[in-house]
Amino acid sequence: MCTIPTDEPESDGTAKWDSTTIVIVEAGGDDARGIGYTYCGAAAAQVIREQLVDLVHDDVRASWLAMGGAVRNLGRPGIAACAISAVDQALWDRKARQLGTSLVDLLGAAHGDVPVYGSGGFCTYSLDRLQEQLGGWAAQGILRVKMKLGREPDADPKRLDAAREAIGGDVELFVDANGAFTPKDALGWADRYAHEWNVSWFEEPVSSADFEGLRLVREHGPAGMDVAAGEYAYVPADVRNLVGCVDVLQLDCTRCLGITGVLSASGLANAHNLDVSAHCAPAISAHVFCAVERRRHLEYFHDHIRIEEMLFDGRPELRDGALHPDRSRPGNGLELKRKEIEKWSAS
């Protein structure tokens, strides 16, 4: 487990933070060792050690079922789901390495890459920092960028002006309120976002647990604006509850019961003609979402980019606005930078 400070204070519409914790799992022996991880707290590591370690074996899906059963009385959504997610990733990675194939090919690639959107634009940023970050992504050829808003709604128009100026008219602008608004306030802002700044994506305009509020914004918001949620979908019922409430379903393979959970939820999305967007964790999400038929894009999140560059070699290459897993490398291609992990584990 590593806790790494942010490069400056960060906040969104409803939360503030100054560090991020990653829990890393290795599974296997001398023949092959699989790597998985989740962005969660120390409690996830404790669940793994105390509840999950003795349940894993070579059958990935049987292990997944056993882990789900073992945490029933702990409460599967939340911390336990994050713990299972990390172990499940490691088991899939180990299987691919044992077979000498890439994780992408083991899962069955539907795509060779996953387009990304640059994500950051925190409410704590100065206008200069906001423009530097979002404009920098646009300059790299990333065709869509996202900023946080909703903490101080009256200050957001200046921030939106700055963002649009930095990225120009050809790059899509996404916004994320992290549940800061009531449904009716969200509708009012959605109209302004669309018509004044050509915003095409409104993420969590209301709490992701407010299904009727999401549905209201989706059904009555401006044409051409997608309403998205799902980053807090931990178990299948969470995914089912969002069907009909969002235009795009978000899934996080470090939270939603891992790779097995993503593949299961992807089938539900297919049945309802829902596109799926990967939430964060780009180093592993790029591999997993190449196997998601209706994948739209992946969140190239500032904090996770920094952490994964610090701790992992073999990350997917960003090229032409998309992440490309290296299918010549076995498994997920990741190798641990053990000195860096020791450094941050001890901090």
Short summary of the structure?
With 347 residues, this protein is of the alpha/beta class.
Distance between the termini: 10 Å
The total of helices stands at: 13
Run of helices and strands? EEEHHHHEHEHEHEHEHEHEHEHEEEEH
Strand content: 15-25%
| Proportion of residues in helical segments | 40-55%
Computed Rg: 19 Å
**Largest beta sheet: what is the strand line-up?**
4-5-6-7-8-9-10-11
Instruction: Look at the structure and give the mean pLDDT.
Output: 96
Helix-and-strand structural type = alpha/beta
Give unreliable regions as ranges. none
For the biggest sheet, the summary is: 8 strands, parallel, barrel
Would you give the CATH topology of the largest domain? TIM Barrel
The gross shape turns out to be: globular
Number of strands: 15
Oligomeric state of this protein: single chain
Kindly list the characteristics that best describe this protein.
347 residues, alpha/beta, Enolase-like, domain 1, TIM Barrel, 2 domains, eight-stranded parallel beta barrel, three-stranded antiparallel sheet, 13 helices
Q: How is the secondary structure organized here?
A:
Elements: E1 2-11, E2 16-28, E3 33-39, H1 42-52, H2 60-70, H3 76-99, H4 103-107, E4 114-120, H5 127-139, E5 144-148, H6 156-167, E6 172-176, H7 183-197, E7 199-203, H8 211-220, E8 226-229, H9 236-242, E9 248-251, H10 258-271, E10 275-278, H11 282-289, E11 295-301, H12 302-311, E12 312-313, E13 317-319, E14 322-324, E15 335-336, H13 338-345
Parallel strand pairs: 4-5, 4-11, 5-6, 6-7, 7-8, 8-9, 9-10, 10-11
Antiparallel strand pairs: 1-2, 2-3, 4-14, 12-15, 13-14
Helix pairs in contact: 1-3, 2-3, 3-10, 5-6, 7-8
